[in-house]
Amino acid sequence: MYATSEQLAEYTGQPAPADAVRLLTRASEDVDDALLTAVYQTDADGMPTDPAIVAVLAAATCAQVEYVAAQGGDDTGAAGQWDSVSIGPVSMSGRKGGPVGVAVDVGPRAQRALARAGLLPGVIW
Q: Is 106:57 a contact under the CB 8 Å cutoff?
C-alpha cells in the first residue's frame, strides 16, 4: 500500500472513510498496474526507496481513491463495461464480452502525478 489513511484524509481534505485501508489497497494495485514498465529503486519488499517517488506514489494512490469515489465508488472495474454507446451514426449496447478490467482505469490526477515524476510511460534506460 502506497498511502496511509492519514495521507488520504490530508489529500482529500475530508476524514478518511471507514474502509480506507481497502480503498487504498485497491488504489495501490491500480497504480502498480499503471507502473508495469516504470523503473525506480526499490527495497527488498518492492517498495520505492527514493523519498520523491514515495511521495508521488502516495499522491497518485490518494488521487485514485478520489477518482474511484467520483465514479460512483465501483473499484471492481465492472462499471467500465458499456451498456450503451453512441458515436455519430454508430450505436452499441449490451455488455462487453471477455474479461472485465483488462486495462486499469487510472484517474487523470493519478496519471498526471505519475507522468510528472517520469514514471509514465515507463522507459528502460
A: no
Give the CB-side neighbour count of residue 87, counting CA atoms within 13 A. Answer: 1
- From CA 123, how far away is CA 37, in angstroms rounded? 7
Residue 72 CB contacts under 8 Å (≥ 6 apart), including other chains = 79
CA angle 70, 71, 77 (to 5 degrees): 140
Residues in contact with 74: Cβ distance below 8 Å, sequence separation at least 6, in sequence order: 68
Q: Specify whether the CB–CB gap between 54 and 119 falls below 8 A.
A: no
Q: How far is CA 77 from CA 29, 61, 80, in A?
A: 12, 16, 6
Residue 38 neighbours by CB under 8 Å, 6+ apart: 114, 119, 120, 122
Instruction: Give the amino acid at 124.
Output: I
| Tens-place pLDDT, residues 25-64 | 999 999 999 988 888 999 999 899 999 999 999 999 999 9
Q: What is the pTM of this model?
A: 0.75
Residues 32 and 122: beta-carbon distance below 8 Å: no
